[in-house]
Sequence to fold (327 residues):
Amino acid sequence: MASSTSKAEEVTGYVEETPKQQGKVGRHCRRFWWIWLIAFCLFVLVIMIIIVYAILPAVSQKEIDKTVLNLHSFTILEPSPTSLLLSLNSTITGAGGIAAHARLDPMNVSFFLEDHKPIDPFMYLKLPSIKGGSSVPVITTNVTTEIASVSALTEFSALLLGSETLRVAIRGRSTLRAGKLHTKVNYNEVITIKGFNQLKGMEIEEYNLLNRTQQSDGSNLGGKVLIPNPTVFDIQMGDVHINLSFNGQALGNGTIPGLHVRPGNHTYDFRARVQTAALLRLAAAGGGNPVVLDVRGNGTDINGVSIPWLAEPLSSLEVKVPIKARE
Fold:
């Protein structure tokens, strides 16, 4: 019995001491409230620092990396040896999480070939502010852009003319803003675009013999040539000069004046100075003897100014161009 009484007293004593302890805690908090306030503020500050400097950048970058740039049109006007007039029409899709409700500040992006080592941008372009959403238009119009590297742009032009597809990398850095929160993010995108595929499908659709003496440039052949363009690129190329040959024998040279290649299949005027003997072969094209010419570029210029980053790729590209038989 004594043992039971002792245990009861212990339990009773414990219950009686609890309010006293709570009272001590309350007095302690009232006395040192400022310490607890500082501790709470420090705790909130630490959490905010972790969110702003660790979690927010990581989450934002992850969501930006999920987006996809869809290129609808790319226009190059007024090309010169040192600059371009660019217009870009595209959309960004795939934004989720914070990126779907945030906004990217305007940023300068570089364009370069994906596999080029070291990275050598051929141009830079300033993109406007981009708002979050499931499908966000990104449009720039008539932006004068300096050529960053003529050699890199020449390499890009050669691949664009000669390849069925090519991959172009786009890189930039901007600030992502979500309400009052903001963080720096990297924009890294690689897009696969269609190339001109060596101008396959190019064809002389019609031609006419000209009186050389009546032509200011001495041309004795004129007509229309079909140039297919399966790409999204709209390019002003100027006066494109070409060399013509047949079975390894030079026939003459010609010009596609003021060439402006637009997406799709379009015909363009051409003029040529061809050897008289070769005209007989051309005339036979409608008589069951098809003629396929070898056409190679020989430079391009606008108002007499040569465009080397266009001329060099054209001069290295030889195209088999059939002459459509006359009906």
